[in-house]
Write the structure tokens for this entry.
Amino acid sequence: MNPENTEKLLTAYPLLYRELRERCFECGDGWFDLVWQVSTEIETAARLEGIPKTAEAWPSVSILKQKTGTLRVQFDKRVSEHIEALVTQAYERSMETCELCGAAAQLDRKRGLGKWTETLCESCRKVHHSPPHRPQDKTKLPVWMRERDSKLK
Ligand SMILES: [Zn+2]
């Protein structure tokens, strides 16, 4: 995610993302609303479960990333079944949300036979697949795509 969206999430949910601070949200900005929503849901659930809002007890996300076209969220330790279910719902929503722009999209399973799968809307897919990328387009790509591109060089 871009620095602006990263900062918004870190500011709104400092305890939930206390371990992520040094790293980042490893997915595209199209999923910002999705991540924001699940963050709110997790914090609401934790409050209802009576978890003290301390650095020792509050749920802590250790990994938040895109993997094979879906949103993955992992915690540093076990969380309740309810919170696990919220994460699963976000994972399911990510299959229908363009990772780059947030528009309605569908997980492209066909590409799973190759190296990766992705969830992009039709217009982002066109941009993404029209080689070569102009340099300014690269900044819009999710971190994992930029990393992949730099490894290919
Ligand atoms: Zn899109």
